[in-house]
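Q: Structure tokens for this one, please.
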Amino acid sequence: LATGPAAANRDADREAARLQALRDRLDALQTEQARTRDLRDSERDTLNKLDRELRAQQQALRETNARLRAQQTKLNALERERRREQARLRSEREQLAAMLRAAWLMERDGQVKWLLSETEPARLARLLGYQRAIGEWRGARIASSRKAIDSLRVIETRISGETDFPCIYGDRLG
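A: Here is the predicted structure, written as tokens:
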């Protein structure tokens, strides 16, 4: 066996080649580790960005739901107001109908003849005063009915305005 300098050189060359291979492998692993770390950092940044966007969307959804609840509360109040006005209008109409029936019955009985046949001026003046008061009352009832109708129209318009917007689910309210 050759144990001389040539053998020692071969052993040293093999050892140097093995060390170089290990260095090359170490460099490759360090490069791979740096690439993996960069990829991890990039993915973490993307995840953080998505998390911020998700929180912003959740906040926007909470705000939208709060506005929707407020809108629904307002709409419910308008609906209650509409029902009150409708009841008032029904009452006004019933009173007007009763008043018209009474006026029709009075005309049928010859109210004009009855007033013209009155011979006492004081009594005639009093009857004319009653008739004027009744006429004023009728006019007030008619004006009140018109006011109720106008108020109901305003409420209907407001309700329409409250429900005439696209809902987040693609439907319309109302």
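A few notes: The mean pLDDT is 82. The longest helix spans residues 5-108.
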